[in-house]
Amino acid sequence: LVALGAIGCAGGAGGGGEEYPGGRPVTLVAPAEPGSGWDTTARAMGEVLQQEGLIEHPLPIENRTGATGAVWLSQMVTERQGRDDVIAVTSLPIMSNKLRGDSEYGYEDVTMISRIITEYYMVAVPADSEYETAEDLLAAIEEDPDAVPVGAAGDDRLPMALLVKAAGGDPQSINFVAYEGGGEQIAAMLNGDIRAAVAGVSEFRGQIEAGDLRGLTVIRDERLAPPMDNIPTAREEGYDVELANWRGIYGPPDMPEEAVTYWQDTIQRMTETQAWEETAAKNQWETTYMEGEEFRNYLDETYESVRAGLRETGEIQ
After folding, report:
1. Antiparallel, parallel or unpaired: β 196-200 and 61-63
2. Global confidence as pTM
3. pLDDT digits (tens, 9 = 90+) for 7-43
């Protein structure tokens, strides 16, 4: 457990009969290591919620690592049912872990509160890598996959597998090295432990802008905004691959309705602030807020898309 510190409260006396949350702390969990996409999202939320005065209670942020969110998800389901004092960041792994059999639980087992953003996948290499283009990397993987270790968290394997398949290679031959998030992947690339990595754009952004890493391709219909608009899209390079990662918030099973409504209202207001717009732009996130029936329908449709992708790449039957 790595605690990132509490986001202070602007007021909120707390106490018995007050409207939720009554000044009481609500923990925001990022179920991965510092530097991961979930961690970046949690920190950004905490900063904007405090800066804009949208919360009047402490919001301690905690990292709970393990199995790409599956360990924390199990604890949320089995130990925190009906609680109103904890929420967590999530994304595609809440689907892919269940589909792969890596988790007993999925999004239907918890209270899905809202979708916040869409983040796009990127393949990156060290700045001095011999691979100048995505085609160079994918050709090397096809020729000798063992010689090209690729860093990826659980949910990031699928976009890489789809790229390799689109390039005519065998996605099941990829030499994946598992990491919890971008921080570990970056260190491994710079140390020479892996030759490339795939993750959300925000996880590599700082090191790309600093000149330590180079983006080979981004899985997106259009190029990213400056200063990363020099990175070609997969489609530009001839690979017909579509997959984006949503990111949102969930609570325990049977979370009280007043808590769900509070967080939906608060998060939606957060996404409408200038501070959030600036944060999203910096991280190359697309704000795609969604709740209620619209969100439930989106989750169901996306689950089937992920299932189809995992079947296509041979990860599941």
Report:
1. unpaired
2. 0.87
3. 333 333 333 457 999 999 999 999 998 888 899 999 9
